[in-house]
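Researcher: I've been going back and forth with a colleague about how Acid protease might be arranged in three dimensions. Neither of us has a model we trust, so I'd like an independent prediction. The organism is Tilletiopsis washingtonensis, in case that matters for your notes. Sequence below.
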Amino acid sequence: MPRRRADVALRSEPGPSSAPALERRTIARGARIVLRPGFANGQLQYAAPIVLGDQSFYVQLDTGSSDLWVASTACNTASCRPKTGNVPRYNAGTSTAQRTNRDLSITYLAGSAAGPILTTNTNFGGASVSHQAFAAASDVQSQQLASMGVSGVLGLALPANSLIQETLEGAGPSNRNNSQTDPSMTGNILPGLWNNTIAGSRYFSIGLQRLPSDGGNGESSLTFGGVDQAYMSTPAQFSWQAATADGDGVTRKWTSLLTQLLVTVNGTDVPITTPALSGAFPKAIWDTGASFNYATPAILNALYGAYGIGPSNDGSRGYYVPCDLLIQITLVINGRSLWTHPLDNNLRGGQGPGASSSGCFASFQPLLSDNPPADLVLGAPFMRSVPTAYSCDSILENPPPGVATTPCDRPQIGVFSPYENDTSRAAARDQFHQVRVLGRSLGDDSKIEAGVGLNNTDEAAGRGLSSGARIAIGVVCGLVAILFVMAAVVLFYKRRRARRNALAGGRPGEKEADDPFLTAPNVSAKERAAQRELLILNGRLPEEVIGPADDQGNGLAAPTADWDTGSKGYWEARAVANDWKRRMKDEEDAAAGVTGLAGNRGSGSSHASNSSARRPSIARMKSGEEEYEMSDAGSTAALQGISRRPDDHL
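Model: Here is an independent structure prediction for Acid protease. You can compare it with whatever you and your colleague have in mind.
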């Protein structure tokens, strides 16, 4: 819900003083829009789909404000680009939206949004509205868009409360307030939806559900010109009363008068004193966009004081309650007693995907503003217990025939209570006992949580995964990763073992000189080359694995060019072989009394003449991007061979 006054930035360029003739198709009577649940401040919120031009979004349903805005691609704040989740943003660069050369700045009870005002063709609830004004917000602050699963806000309060309308028309007598019918001149979508509508049908009703684990059963919905049969059978079941105007006589918000407040303690109804900020009775604003209910501290101290609970001393001055405390509250509005479900009075903290419980909160929290908009704000928790309706027609039953011709200057609010008898209230108390006292769940929340915080567009429908599915996928991926690592380790140790065996001085002559695979007919050159490299890795010299050709030409008499001299294994094997040859020569020279390799290098007496008695140390060299191990005795020969290959780097 926006504050009473807002800063609106105006540019010097003129606005759209004259709009072209507009073609509209009014919303169908009885059009039902399913609302998708999301989470803000760990509490349930509700979103509706909308199409702006050719771009689709979900927007938060907010009866406490009157403007439509979505985050744009120019917005890079934490609200638009969160660390977790995704916020689809409006791309003005690829749209056909028209600029108004005006900017909007709107501030809510928590957070704000600002950006240029545009107009574009809009589709909502199956109805097309031409040149609907909205803001492409480039600066969004403290709005939990990702956790709510939305890209912006759809304000469904009255047009006179639209800050976009105030910006485009100008404040004062020139503002047409609730008689505005041109959607290009207001950020409120109701004038465009209700233009040329049949008299008696300019109203919408709202029904909200709790989480399935708290007994929610069915869909939350927004219905135009009718009611959702899941909540009631006819609009006649509503108790209607005129919305309360502001001090200047203009009705801007859906505001009712609270005539009585009661709580039930130990089976006894206790009246609560409700001092009003102004007037004889406290004013209450209906606001689906509020994740809690709110009231002045004077009202809340009396309300929760009846249960022995006071404000916290942690600086927030909020009201925390034991999760198993049964709180029963009744508000009398429009002459009707509105008893609220105990699970809507005592709220679990930290609800939503990835959230952890943080105790329980009273559903009413304090209005700490120096200039609060009303005495009470009846948010989503209260409205889950009380289906409501909002009308621009003063006559709903037996209205005059034909199209409505009067402006929306006599708005009304309808309320309905599903808990008007002892049976329904006893069932609600039993649900509270099951959930909060016995710790049982009344339903599965995973399907609701799956679609939130991923993507607000229709493509997200196929990508929403439940928590169980995400865990299963993670386990499978983990097992695959473990198997991959194990295979890599086994391969590594096999290669190292083969390398160590070769470096240990194994004599090539100890293996058979002939290999049946190399002498077999019909063996391709590529297969023979691979086998030759394998033999070299096991200590065989090239000249030992090249034999005479057979009669069919399938023998091994092949030039040296047939060897894969560009492979790591070839040069590694050559180094091993050359080392072995040198040691053999040292042994022969030692036996003949000739100075060994150590003396030739001038290493003195620190080296034994029989160098084959020690294991050669390992030196490292680079060829290309890889590092090879080889004995220091054979490294010289190997490097000499590699130096003849111009495509390698040391």
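Researcher: What would you highlight for our discussion?
Model: I'd start with this: The chain has a mean pLDDT of 78. After that, consider the following. Residues 296 and 367 are 5 Å apart (CA to CA).
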